[in-house]
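Lab notebook page, bench 4
Experiment: in silico fold of construct C2
Operator: M.H.
Input chain length: 500 residues
Purpose: comparison with the prior construct
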Amino acid sequence: MSDGSTSAGEHHEGGSGLTRRRRWAAGIATGAVLVSGVGLAAGQMIKSPAQAAADSLPPPPSVLTAPVERRVLEDSVTVRGTVTAAQTVDVAPTSGAPEGGAPVVTKLPVGAGQRLRAGQLLVEVSGRPVFALRGDLPMFRDLKPGAEGDDVAQLQRALGDVGYSTAGDREGRFGERTKAALTAFYSGIGYAPLPAQPDGEQSVESAEAAVTRARRAVEDAESGLSAARRPSTDGTAAGDDDGTPDGDDGTATGAPDTSALGRQAQRAREDLATAREELTRVRAAAGPTLPASEVVFLSRFPARVDEVHSRVGGRVEGNVMSLSAGALVVDGLLQQHEKGLVRPGQKVEILSEVTGRSASGKVTGVADTPGRAQEAGAPDADGGNGAKTDGASGYLMVVKPDKALPADLAGQDVRLTVRAASTNGEALVVPLSAISAGADGRTTVTVVQDDVRHRVPVVTGTTGDGYVEVRPLRQGALSEGERVLVGVRAGPRAGAGADL
């Protein structure tokens, strides 16, 4: 019994030691794990400067490319435009009151928006009329009797248009028939024309009196000479034609000497011829004049009063009114990238953003060369010239409305939308973002192939739908299907073949 008890106790004591050893090993393992965890955490929290700098760099960018395409570009082109007439004229009378005072508006028979006919009175300034006649030449001088030139021929045609014929005068010469027609026209609108010469009538009367005196002197001289040449009562001759009395033997007969009377008659005839020439000159210079300040020539009628800037009783300071003539058209300016998309015959929508009214039209012309707006001028379908004055530059585009535009649109800014604009056939096109300009001024696209990039110089053409036509300077340098750089996107490297 005692041996069994001893063995059991020894076994119990041995088990307790094993347990203690196991616990000790487990503690060591746990401590090792804890130490490892602390070390790992410390390693993550503590970085070297090089590692910190590397970790702060952005991710490598990815290259965005797009394919070169061959197709037709189609788009609408929208530009600003100005409604204008074939001709616009500012009426700015320069003449003052007859006594030299400041010019004042004394009658204003027309108003803004009114239609005008040829020969109509526009305004009266200090009692003198300003009227409109048909003509293309601007009035640059006063027209007086005896004047010659194309402006005189224009006046003759204009007077004939309003019913006052100048037939009988040579075309382009201000003669007697033109004087009579101009006088009758002034009388028809209720005025007397200004005389070409301040003392014209008096000069004519004086010249006529001089002719009368000269004619009488000729009559008296010739009468005296005739009396001296008549045979005497004793049958002797008074003398031959040269005023020298001769006998049968050539000696003097004692008859009166007529040489002095002959000289007197000859001089009287010369004086009469001179007086008649002066009368012709004075009469030609006398008569009505057309001052440049009293007429406005417009290319066609009916014309329109666009604006009136004065009132009755107001002093004339600058423009009194603005007129326009001819059909209304719309002028717009195209930029280089728009010019190739617009061609004559294309339909256009015209929108007045002021009134909300719209109209349709078509392109009638596009300038071949650029210019500033005040220089740009392209004839419209009616032969006018719609020059703009805002100083912008571009290619002038003229749009003719399908129907006549209301007169109150003259001078308004409108929006022009050219429909179905396109390139002529297929063309190489790339996105607009693929175009870049280098420091050397060349326009290029960057071709990307197998992570290799190279620039290709190009000339850009028409644009539309976010694309632009390109033509490589070197034939074959750019082909359909090649990929061009359009941008760079930050993020994980995706390779050179990444698309938009």
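Observations: The two ends are 95 Å apart (CA to CA). Residues 119 and 133 are 5 Å apart (CA to CA).
Next step: discuss at group meeting.
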